[in-house]
Design brief:
This protein is an all-beta fold and 161 residues long. The protein is built from no helices and eleven strands. The protein is elongated and about 80 Å long.
């Protein structure tokens, strides 16, 4: 029972079945568990709908073992597009220095070598930073940008020539 334009599927452990499949045999041995998942696809349309699943003994279709109705509801909301955040590292590849971006959310940048060893911590406080990398060995490095709570915002690559 779905609004026009909606779709649904019922999924078991191995695949999902489209709504046109009204009857499907699933074999579950006595004592085994099985997983069925109902998914709703409202395709950008508000509304509510339901899907009913009946599980019964195939030798006695009047003997329902399990019956459950799954409800789905979709409400339209407006979504504000987030500001594009600047995480550009340049020049990249670099020889002697790199510029880390001015981004009001970045409080700290942590530079790691490819083995995951912390090489340098740069306090940024939302401002652009020029970082001397002349003493780094040539290779690939990772730059992790952190916010004021130490939460990772982005990880970028840096190549030292």
């Amino acid at each position: 029972n779905l609004p026009n334009g909606w779709a649904s599927s019922v999924c078991d452990n191995s695949q999902c079945y489209i709504p046109q499949v009204y009857l499907m045999d699933f074999t579950i041995e006595a004592g085994d568990d099985g997983l069925l998942d109902v998914r709703f696809y409202p395709d950008g349309m508000e509304g509510s709908g339901d899907v009913e699943i009946l599980i019964y003994d195939p030798l006695d279709s009047l003997n329902t073992v399990f019956s459950n109705k799954y409800f789905g509801e979709a409400l339209l909301t407006s979504v504000e597009e987030p500001e594009a955040e600047n995480f550009n590292i340049y020049p990249n590849p670099a020889n002697n220095y790199v510029i880390l971006p001015d981004n009001r959310n970045i409080q700290q940048a942590v530079i790691y070598n490819i083995a995951g060893r912390k090489i340098q911590i740069v306090e940024m406080n939302g401002l652009e930073a020029r970082v001397d990398i002349g003493h780094f060995m040539p290779g690939l490095y990772l730059v992790q940008f952190l916010d004021e709570n130490g939460v990772k915002l982005h990880t970028g690559r840096l190549t030292k020539r």
